[in-house]
Amino acid sequence: MSVFTGWRAALRIARRDALRAKGRSALVVAMIAVPVLGVTALDVTYRSAAPTTAEQLTADLGSADALFRDPRNGPIEQLPDGDMYVAVDEEAVPDENSPAIDISTTFPRGSRALDIRSAPADVTTAYGITSTDIFEIRTSDKMVRGMVDLVRGSYPHGAGEVAATEPFLESTGLDVGSTTTVRNSGRKYRITGVVEKPDALKTKALYADPGAVLAPWKTRAEHDKKVLPPNERPVQWLVEAPEGAGVTWPDVLRANKSGVLVKSRQVVLDPPPDSEVPLAKKGYQSYASGSDELSVALVTVVAMAILEIVLLAGPAFAVGARRSRRQLGLLGTCGGDRRHVRAVVLGGGLVLGGVGAVTGAVAGIGLTAVLRPMLEDLVGHRFVSLELRPLELLGIAAFGLVTGLLAAFAPAIVASRQSVLESLTGRRGVRRSSRILPILGCCVLAIGTVVAVYGGTTGDSGLVSGGSIIAELGLLACIPVLVGLLGRVGRRLPLSPRMALRDAARNRGRTAPAVAAVMAAVAGSVAVATYMSSTKAENEFDYVPAMTQGTILLSSSYFSGADVAGRLLRARPAVERSLAVTGKRADYRRVWAGSDCNVYKSESCGSLEMVVPAGKDHACPLTGKGAKALAARLSADEHKKLMRSPACLTRLMPSGIFNSDMSNIVVADETLLDVYAKFADPAATEALAAGTPVLLNKTYAKNGEVTIKAVHRYSEKDKKNRAAQHPDKPRTTTTKLKVYVAPEKYAATPGVSMIMPQKTAERLGLHTSPAGSVYTAAHPPTSAELQRARAAIDQAGGGLWVQSESGPYGTEDTMMVVLVLLAGMVTLGAASITTGLAKADAEADLTTLSAVGAPPGVRRKLSGFQCMVVALTGVVLGTLAGLVPAVALRLVDLREALKTMRAEPMESAYTPIVLPWSTIGLLVVGVPLLAGLLAMAFTRSRLALARRAG
After folding, report:
1. Residues 133-142: pLDDT tens digits?
2. What are 388-407's pLDDT values in tens digits?
3. What is the mean pLDDT of residues 431-445?
4. Sheet architecture: strand order including 705-712
5. How far apart are CA 206 and CA 169, in angstroms?
6. Which of 864, 867, 859 is closest to 843 using CA atoms?
7. Is the pLDDT of residue 334 over 50?
8. 264-to-54, 69, 105, 534, 665 alpha-carbon distances in Å
């Protein structure tokens, strides 16, 4: 019999076995198909989401041949891609107010052009008022196709019509057929359709025909000085050259001489040689695009995916071989040798691997097609098409096929070593576990941990990755011994958990791979979760809030003119109804000396500041002379403590929120202390009532006093205050004030260093004016609430703003949930597979239980505890294994942070290691418990009657 004939027979036997054991076969196919599905979907999505050069040009130019614009730098030189340029006169500064170039003179002769004009504007919504961008371009022109496309409705035509993007409509509560008013021009426009920018789906904007919005706005601004003209951006032109001509490189060079920047489709797709590009001769190059080479991380992920499948599918093939041992024994009696037995078991891997690979690849392509709209929304741009690369898809399918073979390899070796007599009689024989393997595993675990930690301390992420993988492989080698110890743990436990532990210890070949699969999945999730939670804590520490969390500020514009008090009085009730404010309101006033610098020029207005006393205790050691020398000696924790000291917070905390100058002095009463600073102290309240300021940052105080330096300089145009003060020339006063010093933690209050009573400001000859109010908020304002507040402010006369603190940005919470779900699914799957294999492998034991009179519920409880043992053991080991790379990577980050801090001492070096206890708790407690309960729920209490063998 030839090799091919033997394999043909082996594949035929394997196919029949797969059809006979449909449940087990479907399980193996699913385990192989799911990773192939995921990798296929990822490949198709990645290739489809990355636009080609031609596709990106269509998004930028529509169907036009080129885009012309004036960067207002004078004559320029550019690279062929149109993204990089420099002025011929490199010392020239862009001048937005310089006269615009007549760009049309630079177009190729016989061209057709469309201009694109845009400006930000305030428009009415279903909730109130919002700001958006308005673009004037003839969207119905075919030259715009691919740049702006119609989704539903119709294109706008003429005055009185606009089209909107979907994000704009969602945020404003409007829809097709609704009307919106441009506040500055006072004109109403009907929304006729929904359009989108295929390369920027999240754009919030309105589109109108040329002259429909900006021209009426300019006309009204010319006749009404209270209306500000539109703040137009530089005009851009889409140019369509005569058919077959295109916009050539010589055309681009001629336009550059006039100061016009050009992005030409023809030039980008077929660039000229560097010898013809003046800018390239000077050494300038385009930004390099990303490499197509697989990263180390991607290789690691693929390797771990193969390991997962082999660990999960291997026991299934082993049990299949054990269930078919009589058939394999008969194969030996017919003259078959070990090669043929191995071929039959490997044939099962080949058959099931092939089915799983094809199923996964086809399902991956189909899933990507079905989820295409959602994926496009996620990445923020449209896919021009689903790009399928046959070689890559064949490689992914081959990955699934090879994985099936690898999973069947070890069971094939074991099955081929059994004697024919053992196979025919059903005896398993006794095999002792290796004593060398666990010792070798412990050594490899220790070496991997040392390598990972060393990589972290030296800043080598490659060593961290390699050491982490080595450590995990070492722990894998130790799992059989650890599983064997489980049997000794359950001696005093009740019957079901005791039997589950002993069964796991007795059948290590089935239990250990499942535990290893759970450990590998959980280790990855815990590593990423630990790193992310640590990074989140670092970002929260580094984040400098603009305002106190949980507050809303209604403030006046520094240039809002007169009657601020009246506007605030009229706007407050409506704003309070629009926003989720709670508790009492705190009003405040801004304070200044001399003439108001918001009204008069800086050389003819006053100034106000708190003087920092001399001395080491009042200066931030991380600034000035000797700061770098000190930083070189500091640890990360020591630097963190200094960064949050009151002296350094004066450099770190924001200024100008409550006042236009840098003094951070606010005129208010005790209500602001309570609402904004969250400082409720009867002694501070009494001090303010007595006219004593409350100092929140003790750096400015010495012996309970602060020094206020005021320059009383008045402008000649400031008739009111100049006449009242009778100044002959600028006068500088330095006043020492007794203050009440707040505890050190209040030095971190954003935007406020001292709260001064009104009567104290008057006594010092300072001027004050109502500036706004602070509220406690139940939650940060939503977009709809802000739009309602804008409308209320507008009705009150305008000139007021609503501000809130949203906190540091981040999506870590969502990612944490995804990681827990991923690890939980793998854990449940591995535990369920092991429990199913245990039931299939232990029918004789279960029959014996029934024969000796065990209650029916014991079978259900046994399955539950078997599942729980695998899940809990794998989760605990995975949690420990996942901490190694997470800690090592944080050591890499710490090294980089210390390097940056020692170069710039005011840069934070805080690099914490924070364990994600909620994630670990869910994995260690919740997932094993859920696995056990599910196994109990889906296990039958009574044993099905079976035909007696023999």
Report:
1. 999 999 999 9
2. 888 888 887 887 777 767 76
3. 73
4. 607-611, 705-712, 731-738
5. 10
6. 859
7. yes
8. 11, 12, 17, 47, 55
Name the packing angle between helices 856-903 and 495-506 (round to 10°). Answer: 70
CB–CB of 665/712 below 8 Å? no
Find all residues with CB under 8 Å of 185, minimum gap 6, and list them.
213, 216, 217, 220, 227
Q: Give dist(CA 405, CA 830) in Å, integer.
A: 19
DSSP-derived letter for residue 561 is -
- Would you say 206 and 164 are in contact if contact means Cβ atoms under 8 Å apart? yes
pLDDT, tens only, 20-67: 777 767 777 777 777 777 778 878 888 888 888 888 889 899 999 999
User: How far is Cα 477 from Cα 486, in angstroms, rounded to an integer?
Assistant: 16
Amino acid at 694: V
pLDDT at residue 822 in the model: 58
CA distances from 210 to 114, 139, 324, 435 (A): 9, 10, 78, 83
Crossing angle (nearest 10°) for helices 325-333 and 338-370 = 140
Distance between CA atoms of residues 270 and 511, nearest Å: 61
- Does residue 696 register a pLDDT over 80? yes
The C-alpha atoms of residue 945 and residue 902 are separated, in whole angstroms, by 76
DSSP 356-374: HHHHHHHHHHHHHHHTHHH
| Residue 668 pLDDT grade (very low, low, confident, very high; cuts 50, 70, 90) | very high
The answer, yes or no, to whether residue 296 has pLDDT greater than 60, is: no
| Coil, helix or strand at residue 237 | strand
Q: Residue 557, class by beta-carbon neighbours within 10 Å (0-12 exposed, 13-18 middle, 19+ buried)?
A: middle
Dihedral angle computed from the Cα positions of residues 563, 569, 573 and 576, in that order, rounded to the nearest 10 degrees: 80
φ, ψ dihedrals at 772, nearest 5° = 165, -170
Place of tokens 């705190």: 586
In whole angstroms, what is the distance from residue 105 CA to residue 618 CA? 64
The mean per-residue pLDDT over the stretch 325-339 comes to 59
Asked if pLDDT for residue 434 goes beyond 70, the answer is no
Distance in angstroms (rounded) separating the CA atoms of residues 826 and 136: 53
pLDDT digits 0-9 by tens, 550-560: 899 998 865 55
d(CA 861, CA 498): 11
Q: What is the pTM of this model?
A: 0.74
Q: Specify the 3-state DSSP secondary structure of 480.
A: helix
903, burial (CB in 10 Å: exposed 0-12, middle 13-18, buried 19+)? exposed
Find the helix packing angle between 856-903 and 927-937, rounded to 10°: 160
100 Cβ contact list (under 8 Å, min separation 6): 70, 72, 234, 235
Note the helical H segments in 717-782.
719-725, 758-763
Rounded Cα gap, residues 635 and 616, in angstroms: 21
- What digits encode the pLDDT tens for the residues 821-868? 655 666 666 666 656 656 655 566 667 767 777 777 777 787 778 778
